[in-house]
Automatic annotation (TrEMBL):
Domain of life: Bacteria
Gene name of the encoded protein: egtC
CDD domains in UniProt: YafJ
Pfam family, one: GATase_4
Organism: Mycobacterium ahvazicum
Protein name, as recorded: Gamma-glutamyl-hercynylcysteine sulfoxide hydrolase
InterPro entries: EgtC (IPR017808), EgtC-like (IPR026869), EgtC_Actinobacteria (IPR032889), Gamma-glu_amide_hydrolase (IPR052373), GATase_2_dom (IPR017932), Ntn_hydrolases_N (IPR029055)
């Protein structure tokens, strides 16, 4: 189990998204409010963002990552640097490792294919996933990410529905971004959305008590882009 957060909008500091809010990912690493599986997320953290320092549109940005196996609540290096890291598209996560999965950086979200950043909040039976040599780790989340990358993010909803059928116990909340789009699935775990004046936050749970947070219905796909926000029910799978 994990907690994760995605941002798409104006350039903001990483700190303002994950460290500064009263119930942000730092607090969720030791005291999540809506987590149903596990008590804390002490097995590492990861922050990914799109770097546009060379110019161009958000989609031209380069995905950068900073990952650690240390608990987020005690990482003074991130606390020092995060206020200076700014981006219009961010994916961040704190990790509670699935039993039996490795505790190393390569198993920590966000994962990437060079274009997308992706985090998985949940658990999945690795036996239902296609074998792929591109997974960053043998952990279930990394293998799920590699499967999604290989099939393409355009069919994310169909992929999640199919895997959820193959593994009825799976929890498949996925969060992915490419700099100009933010995608998320709600599949048997919590997901909330906050529409701010300067952008949109998708998160496993609200990072503050703002009344504008909305719960995303289960078995839905959310897409955030410059065109706005859409929520689509996930249909029955038509094949893998």
């Amino acid at each position: 189990m994990c907690r994760h957060l995605g941002w798409l909008g104006a350039d903001v500091s990483v700190s303002s998204l994950i460290l500064d809010p009263p119930f942000g990912l730092r607090v969720q690493s030791y005291s999540p409010r809506r987590q149903k599986h596990g008590l804390m997320n002490a097995d590492g953290w990861g922050v990914g963002f799109f770097d546009r320092s060379s110019g161009g549109t958000p989609a031209d940005g380069v995905p950068r990552r900073w990952r650690s196996t240390a608990p987020l609540w005690g990482d003074t290096s991130l606390e020092s640097v995060a206020p200076a890291l700014r981006s219009g598209c961010v994916v961040a996560a704190v990790r509670s490792a699935t039993v039996g999965m490795p505790l190393d950086v390569s198993a920590t979200a966000p994962f990437t294919d060079g274009q997308w950043l992706l985090s998985h909040n949940g658990v999945v039976d690795r036996g239902v996933l296609p074998l792929t040599a591109t997974a960053e780790s043998v952990c279930d989340s990394a293998m799920l990410a590699a499967t999604i990358f290989s099939l393409g993010l355009e069919v994310l909803g169909e992929t999640i529905a199919q895997i959820g059928t193959l593994d009825p116990n799976a929890r498949l909340n996925v969060l992915a971004a490419n700099g100009s789009r933010l995608l998320a699935t709600a599949w048997r775990d919590t997901l909330s959305i906050l529409r701010r004046d300067d952008g949109v936050v998708l998160a496993s749970e609200p990072y503050n008590d703002d009344s504008e947070w909305e719960d995303v219905p289960d078995h839905h796909l959310v897409e955030v882009s410059t065109k706005g926000v859409t929520m689509t029910p996930l249909d029955e799978p038509k094949g893998f």
